[in-house]
Amino acid sequence: MSSDDDDWVGTPPEGRISRDRANPGYWNQAWLPKTIVFGVLGILVVVVILLALL
To answer: Which domain holds residue 37?
Structure first.
């Protein structure tokens, strides 16, 4: 007998979300604010390093 978990039926195991409740666009949400925050933090790190070297 195969132990393939992809063929389960019935109630989904804990921690899994059924296909009808899934949100495929989740990872595309709010990318702009994250980009701005990490960009500013990156610039601040570069400035701190440059100040430390001078």
So the answer is: 30-54
